[in-house]
Amino acid sequence: MDDNVIANVSRPGTSLRGPAVKETSGPTQGVRPTSQGGRPLSGYVRPGTQSGRPGTMEQAIRTPRTAHTARPVTSASGRFVRLGTASMLSTPDGPFINIARINFSKYASRPTLAKGLFEYIFHHENDVRNALELAALATEACQYSDWWWKVALAKCYFRLGMYRDAEKQLRSALKSDEVIDAYLHLAKVYCRLDQPLAAIEVYTQGLKQFPGETTLLTGIARIYEGLGKMEEGVKYYKDVLKSDNMNVEAIACIATNHFYTDQPEMALKFYRRLLQMGVYNAELFNNLGLCCFYAQQYDMTLTCFMRALSLAEDDVVIGDVWFNIGHVALGICDIKLAYQCFRLALSHNNDHAEAYNNLGVLEMKKNHVEAARSFFQASFVMAPHLYEPHYNFAILADQLGDFQSSYLSAKRAVETFPDHVDSKELLKQLKEHFSLL
Hints:
- By secondary structure, the chain is mainly α.
- It has helices spanning 57-61, 104-108, 111-124, 128-141, 147-159, 163-176, 180-192, 196-209, 214-226, 230-243, 248-260, 264-277, 282-294, 298-311, 315-331, 335-348, 353-365, 369-382, 388-400, 403-416, 421-436.
- The protein starts with 56 loop residues before the first helix and ends with a helix.
């Protein structure tokens, strides 16, 4: 009877949680890399993905305080209104506002001060319970007519995991006054409930009231990209650029789609546009290096990768850059350099499943059977959604005469990526072999 429980098995193309459904017009899983959860990687790190997550251990274990202490009675005349009372007075070594000593009923009746106080408690202190109490009292004080407080209540409910209550507040806010924030948060609630089609419907309703709004168009494009319908998503990203030609996310996602649909020259133009706009980071130079390599502009390839290594600060990013340099080395048939690059990728990111798989292939070419077996096993244990290590392990087991392990690995490869022709052929041969036995 829980309203927040979702179905365990969803219909194809209606869920953001499972692997994306293959689209005939978009890049397949065999071309585009995927994340640890099996979702295709987007061209942009989306804002808001870290909201609500504590940055330190102290914030993680800190329990929001809900106790209230009585404020001392102060003598305030009409000429000297004391705004800095004991509850709102900051000390050099203490917090800016002592939330435990605030009388929320007093400030809830003063909308201008209450809204600023709510933003401080909710965003700065991350104290959702006290923010919810203040929002509830302020909503009651304004006689349930202010849409801002309804959206504030929905934010608190969303942070606490009460998605249906958040939906009710946002629906009520839209009845009072149709604002963009309510549409955006309502679509966010549906995405968290794993109802992407309902979120798209909300975005579409918002576009009827606010035509050409880039945030609404971007939201629809993100959902289509999450569902694996890249062609639909790219259409909306292009609509975003018609209204805002400086939108970094739209440019990056369109460039990613061009790259994985075998158009590296077009992707290179979009990435160069980002560089001209002032985006200067390791990820951009890494993508520029890959585009230059596949566009056969070899003079710029290693320069871009060297610049990416010099700008990278995260070990995960450094591992990805070394992994891509290893692919460039394979393209120029420098096996020793490729082996060293994949080793360097693992030294910076020990969970890089793709590097384990490629090292296994190189070890198999050297006839180092045990090392190849261990690399393949490590790869598909860390990333079960990858089909390459399953197929490679099946080939190795077939060569060694271990037909049972080869059959199981080939079957997993087909289940992971049903359109892989080589896995299907190997599975068919093994079935024929077992039928003869």
